[in-house]
Amino acid sequence: MRKYLIILFAAAAVLSCQDTTQRPAAVSFDDVVASRRSIRDYDASKTTISEADVRAIIAAAQEAPSWANSQPSRYYVALSREKADAVREVIGEWNKKNTEGAPVFIVSTFVRGKSGFGRDGEPANEVGDGWGAYDNGLSDAHLILKARAMGFDTLIMGGRDADALRSIFDIPEEEAIMAVISLGYRASNPQRPARKPQEEILKFF
Ligand SMILES: Cc1cc2nc3c(=O)[nH]c(=O)nc-3n(C[C@H](O)[C@H](O)[C@H](O)COP(=O)(O)O)c2cc1C
User: 85 or 14, which is more confident?
Assistant: First the structure.
């Protein structure tokens, strides 16, 4: 009986350690930040990203702060091969080549005239719709870090044809189209691009 129980526990332990989703586990926040990289080489054999996965990622993006909680960010997700291919046609040759094995593409936009604007529709200060772009960047930062925490990889792409994306996803004119974000699994580990020394970017008073 005891021998039987030991075998049972050992089997349960092995099963609980198996990663059925092909994802490498990222544990702490620091691990997530350190292991996130802009990935330009995707493993085309790993394509299991579900709508539920994307919803979890977008839920994290929605937790980002925004001007007066105006939540101006919008997301358009190409989950099907057909839509993903259509997106890859309008992100330039360099980005197209680098995202070949990525199964999912997310287009991030923000509604103009909300974040940074008063009820009267007037800009609250000189930044204007820059605050919408700010909020969109914040939610995209949540998005890419959550994706990494779930074991996925991303590439934010500002090189894209906004008019073409507008027609592919029928994006209303009131939304400014910002980045395309590829979502997939890295095939190799890129080097960490160097960061500026803090002396160059930071001042204490
Ligand atoms: C707004 C924005 C636009 C970007 N556009 C592109 C792009 O079109 N193509 C690309 O390969 N990388 C793009 N990147 C990725 C940057 O090159 C990358 O974040 C930077 O080199 C630092 O590398 P890391 O993300 O691995 O830390 C973009 C990043 C941001 C935030």
Answer: 85
State if residue 179 touches ligand 1 by the CB under 6 angstroms criterion.
yes
- HEC sequence for 123-183: ECCCCCCHHHHHHHHHHHHHHHHHHHHCCCEEEEECCCCHHHHHHHHCCCCCEEEEEEEEE
State whether the beta carbon of 60 lies less than 6 angstroms from ligand 1. no
Domain 33-190 has CATH 1.10.357.30: no
Strand, coil or helix: 110 = strand
Q: In what order do the strands lie in the sheet with 153-157?
A: 73-78, 104-111, 175-184, 153-157
CA–centroid distance, 126 to ligand 1, in Å, is: 27
Average pLDDT of the chain? 91
Measured in Å, residue 39 CA sits from the centre of ligand 1 at 9
- Domain spans of the chain, in order of start: 33-190
pLDDT higher than threshold 80 for residue 159:
yes
